[in-house]
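Sync notes, pocket subgroup
Present: LS, DG
LS reminded everyone that the earlier model was apo-only. Rerun requested with S-adenosylmethionine included. Inputs:
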Amino acid sequence: MKKQHELFGFQRYLMAKKTVDDRALNKDVFQYVNQQLKVSGRKRILEVGGGIGTMIQRLFETVPFFDVDYTLMDVEADNLAVVLSVFSDYASCHHIHMDILEKDHFILSTDGKKARVHLLEGDLLKLPDFDFEPWDGIITHAVLDLLPLDAALPVLFACLKPGGWLYSTINFDGMTLLEPEIDPILDYQIMRAYHNSMDARRLGELTSAGSLTGRKLFFALQEYNFLIQGAGASDWFVFANEGLYPSDEAYFLECILDFFEESVGRRGVIESDQFQGWLEQRRGQIKSGALILITHQYDYFALRPAKNKN
Ligand SMILES: C[S@@+](CC[C@H](N)C(=O)[O-])C[C@H]1O[C@@H](n2cnc3c(N)ncnc32)[C@H](O)[C@@H]1O
């Protein structure tokens, strides 16, 4: 695995988030993907907003066998730029054979598992402009809250073959809990301002799905003709064991506080000194191993029907 001290900023955050997501992902909902990948034959998968590719690592770690052409798409070139080096280290640490064919195309293989990975820099909402063949499966992991569902879901639907599947995970749903409490009123006001900043995110004229994406998706998926097969909670729960956070999760928590600082600070609804004092106390709680973070999220597995509705 790419040593975490060699990744910086947002890419290090995404790597640090992996172990948090591993624990959080709903294991029942994941079984649907497992079943799809186990069926013999080569499958074409698209991951939208795939970041640095940690979902591919997860497939190697948890699915017994698969054979996939995996398009790892992200709108940020900086994320895709580290993928080759991340996987060079990952492959050597996990005894996976890696063939680098081009700077945006490599193959990972080990007993019974093969992924031909293609990197694609692009915006999901502009995918209809590309000439593509529909995919067997699409993954969106910790992404849909950033996008307007009314624009994103029809594109995802159109990108799937009839009978194809969507695995959409870590869809935030309205609760961030930081413990131990500092001041119940201030904690609440900061939480509200944080969630409001998610709801205020705009993409041009459109509003992103925001802080209640998890529950909205249950209805929106059906509105856009997906058939929901599996759904369940995938809450993050981060805590220290005997004062130590696992893997790079202390860094993950620092990033969460940085997100608070940026988004809540920008809104200017909390008095500045009070907010800085709160951040300082929370950062102190990370250092002493006292801080607990819980966030509420949902995972979904849904199908595009094999036949169109009349
Ligand atoms: C919170 S990160 C999650 C990354 C990755 N799925 C993970 O969990 O490690 C959200 C990702 O979505 C990407 N993204 C945001 N809007 C996008 C869009 N319209 N099309 C494609 N990717 C997008 C971002 O660049 C970012 O990498």
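DG: The pocket of S-adenosylmethionine is lined by residues 14, 17, 48-51, 54, 73-76, 79, 123-125, 141-143, 146-147 (CB under 6 Å).
LS: Residues 193 and 298 are 22 Å apart (CA to CA).
Action: DG to write up.
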